[in-house]
Structure formats: C-alpha cells, structure tokens
Amino acid sequence: MRYKDTSDLEISLLLEAIYRKYGYDFREYSQAHIRRRIMNRMALSGFEDIAQMQSMVLNDMPFASELLQDLSITVTEMFRDPAFYRSLREKVIPILKTYPFIKIWHAGCATGEEAYSMAILLQEEGLYERTTIYATDFNQLALNRAKEGIFSNKLIKEYTSNYQLSGGKESFSSYYTSHYDNVIMNQSLKKNIVWANHNLVTDSVFAEVHLILCRNVLIYFDQNLQNKVQTLFYNSLINGGILSLGSKESIRFTDYFEHYSELDLKQRIFKKKY
C-alpha cells in the first residue's frame, strides 16, 4: 500500500500497534474518522507527532485506554430517530409476535440508551417477558455505564419527546426514577438484557437471533470491514430474521444485498430471505 504522506503511514503503524498490543482492531475503520480522532487526541495531549503518541500507547496503559475511548463510538440517545421505532412497532413487532421466544442482538450498544428503548417498546407490546436482548460493545466503560442505566436529567426532555414521537403508549416518566441530577431506569427493564463485551471486528457469532440492531456503527468502517460484519450478521440471523441499520447505512453495496428483502427501505430495516 502506498501512503499519501508520512502521517498516513504513522497512523497505519499506530493502529497496527494497538491491534498487536491490545487486540482492538481499527485498521479497517473509516480513515477520515480515525484521523480526526487521533489528531484531536494528539492536540489535547501535546504530542509533537504520531510516532511519539505510539510510544505512549505501547508503554502507558492509562493513556492507551484514553485513546481507545476516543476511537470507539458512543453517540446514542433514547428512541433515537423516532420514525425508526415507529416502524419497528408497525412492521417488525407483528413478525416477532409469531415466535414463542425472541432473541435480539443490539450490536454496538454504547451506553445502552437504545437497548433500554427496545426494552420499553417490547414491554408495551407484551413481548418483553419472552425476549432476551443481547446488548454488546467492545467499550467496557460504556458497557459499565449501560448496566447502571443512569442518565442525566438534562436529557430527559429530549428523550421524552423522542418516545412520544415514536408511538409510546405510556408516560415516559413511568420507566425511570429521578435521583438528584440523574434518572435511573427501572429494574424491570434490565432483567432481560444481557450486557456483553463483543468486538464486531474481531469476534465471531455468539447467538442465533431474530432481530439485529446495529445503527450508525458501520458508517465508521471501510467497505471491506462492512462486508465482514455483514457476514457476521447474516450468520447470526435466523431465516426470516430482521436486520436494522442506521439511516445512512445500507446493504446495497455489500455481498449480502440479494439475501435480504426490504421491510422499510427508508428506515433501513431488512428481512433475511428463506
């Protein structure tokens, strides 16, 4: 591979070092995303060049953890894109109701807001008692926050609006308790969520599921890595299972386009063909 400039080569070597030392593979992430995050951390930490940062990554575990947090994606919110959740209620829930037991994989769950959103939706549709949600991420700090289910009070107005626009059937406040400046999600929402560390880039299939939600994660991967992850998803879904992606993501340019039918193209919801 030829590199446009020295910094591209240095970033490639840094990512290789992270993979070999810690097992986290960012080598096929979007170059623009990775460069932006690395340059930001370099400026904040006062390094003169990326080579200096690489030395720090290999020899200073606290700094390495800090950089890994920078490179991971933790942008999320409750009922993000309400129209998506409305489509889930109208087009996916009727399919899930045909199964006696339901397994859902929320891949790249970050700090858990969308996993709790799914738990609320399932509870309102009478499906939560027979569902297991596997909520996974490679970012252990994000997973720890997700397990706690504690979110800032400042976000609740937006979350409540999202919930209402998504077709929520209850008062959103019934799903949490306020505690000082935070809210704590009800224990009843946590009981069927299994939080687990899983890396989409390096790990394999761990469950056969009826529904996969992986929204706004693949946009950070290059085409080769997207195909690799789509293979993982395809092999994890039962025949007739549902794949839900983010609004800017698609299976159109992957190897699996012909293996799915469209349930809702606008909301990026696809059904695996039999």
TrEMBL record:
SMART domains: MeTrc
One Pfam family recorded for the sequence: CheR
Protein name as annotated: Chemotaxis protein CheR
Domain CheR-type methyltransferase intervals: 1-251
Superkingdom assignment: Bacteria
Organism phylogeny: Bacteria, Pseudomonadati, Bacteroidota, Flavobacteriia, Flavobacteriales
Alphabetized GO MF terms: S-adenosylmethionine-dependent methyltransferase activity
